[in-house]
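Workshop exercise sheet. Pairs work together: one partner reads the sequence aloud, the other fills in the structure field after running the prediction. Swap roles for the next sheet.
Pair: D.N. / O.F.
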Amino acid sequence: MPSEVAYDLTEEKVMTTTSSCESCGMSIESGRYCGYCTDESGALLSFEERFARMAGWQARRDPAATKQDIERQVLDYMATMPAWRDHPRVQAR
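Structure field:
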């Protein structure tokens, strides 16, 4: 005799699609850039501003690292990001 299987149809499962910010890699739900990488109008911040902020974040993560090491790490990471991989400063690293 076949057994009956009960299904709870009242619980709706919603799948969300996330992508990554093309500037920093942070998970985002829509668009190309996260709120940390854009200004009030949604435009991508300058390379210099994003580099400085990312270097500050990296320095807080690794306080023993030298400024030179921090900058190298940030440039290496930015080279993996679509928004910055062709930037002259990233290319010159």
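Discussion prompt: The two ends are 71 Å apart (CA to CA). What would you look at next?
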